[in-house]
Amino acid sequence: MSKDVAEPATAPTTSRRPVSLIGVLGELLLTAGALVLLFLGWQVWWNDAITGAQQSAAASDLSLAWQEQGRADERASSGGEEDGDGARDAAGGAAVDPPVEASAPVYGEAFAVMYVPRFGDDSQRTIAEGTGLDVLNDVETGVGHYEGTQLPGAVGNFAIAAHRSAYGGGMHEIDRLRLGDGIHIQTADAWYTYRFRDLEYVTPDTVGVLAPVPHRPDLAPTDRIITLTSCNPLHSTAERIIAYGVLESWRPASAGPPDEIAAAVAEWGR
Predict the structure, then answer these.
(1) In this predicted structure, what is the pLDDT of residue 73?
(2) CB neighbours of 73 closer than 8 A, spacing ≥ 6?
(3) What is the value of pTM for the model shown?
(4) How far is CA 17 from the centre of its chain?
(5) How far is CA 130 from CA 134, 159, 194, 243, in A?
(6) What is the tens place of the pLDDT at every residue in 228-240?
(7) Which three-class secondary structure state does DSSP give residue 129?
(8) C-alpha angle with apex 225: 122 to 127, nearest 5 degrees?
(9) Distances (CA, A) of 225 to 79, 95, 97, 164, 252
(10) Distance CA 85, CA 215 (A)
């Protein structure tokens, strides 16, 4: 009697598609593209951080030089004794001195320092005259003043501009401003404290924000305001983000920085 013998099991065969040269090249190109994008992102972030640190250091040096000069001037005018507090109230009144106005700078000249606590530590930046790329991309300035607009302390519109996400990102956190936030401006002669009031988003060609009375060039200004402008959204120039503030108070350079930022300013340059 015969027995059926089972056939040995055989593994199923699968067909393998041959590796094509085009496929290999495609994979390599995708990998290379991803690496390039990562490198560019890192380089942009790293360069931004380095430039921001340089701009902060340059602003600190300028601020400290002005503070020292202010103290020297005060000692000279008081016979060696420093006065306590020379603050002035910008709200006005017949007995209140009007703010000292900065002298008109020439193009590219650094004439002020901006410090906005909401922007974070070491966010101080030098303001130079003009808004060309040679000013906004400069490793020691980064903030530019629109020529033809008013200067710190003056009636009208003191308008400035900076990048958000490149060349130091002087206004990276502009969208985080909250009502009442301080916007502090220092010049060789005085400290000015503006208070943030409102944000606005406009198209790049909306130049009315630079008028002495924003959007109302037909009106004569009565307020002393500051206008900060930057690109929006991040990494784009599709529109502009505008922040407005109103001058609250000022004090001569000899009085030192406002009390609310005195501790932070004391750390500059250390």
Answers:
(1) 79
(2) 253, 254
(3) 0.79
(4) 56
(5) 9, 11, 21, 19
(6) 999 999 888 899 9
(7) strand
(8) 35
(9) 36, 22, 18, 21, 19
(10) 37
